[in-house]
Design brief:
Blueprint: E1 3-7, E2 10-12, E3 18-25, E4 33-39, E5 46-52, E6 57-60, E7 68-72, E8 78-83, E9 92-100, E10 105-108, E11 112-116
Parallel strand pairs: 2-11
Antiparallel strand pairs: 1-3, 3-8, 4-5, 4-9, 5-6, 7-8, 9-10, 9-11
């Protein structure tokens, strides 16, 4: 069964760190663009960070630049989002998306809750 499995969310104090994982099941991330999005209550879903696995190019939302890092493992099976210096405004449900144009593939994870609070 083809799916994305997310893990690593939880409750952390401001200034703390978390590592989110997005694991591919039934396929690999070869030639995919993998994107982490987040959605806070009452807000629209927004892009957090993305990586193109064919060349490891990345891009980040301005709000997380310098604090978050996205990476893919050598086996192209897991994409991680390393989150440092977390702020209360980072609180949201984080979703992983994997998309490939040729042939077309588009998968979403189930979401993982990140709460930053003292």
């Amino acid at each position: 069964q083809v799916q994305l499995v997310e893990s690593g969310g939880g409750l952390v104090q401001p200034g703390g760190s978390l590592r989110l994982s997005c694991a591919a099941s039934g396929f690999t991330f070869s030639s995919y663009r993998v994107t982490w999005y987040r959605q806070a209550p009452g807000k629209e879903r927004e892009l957090v960070a993305a990586i193109t696995t064919s060349d490891d190019s990345t891009n980040y939302a301005d709000s997380v630049k310098g604090r978050f890092t996205i990476s893919v493992d050598n086996a192209k099976s897991t994409v991680a989002l390393h989150m440092n210096s977390l702020k209360p405004e980072d609180t949201a449900v984080y979703y992983c998306n994997a998309r490939r144009v040729v042939p077309w593939s588009n998968y979403w994870g189930q979401g993982t809750q990140v709460t930053v609070s003292s």
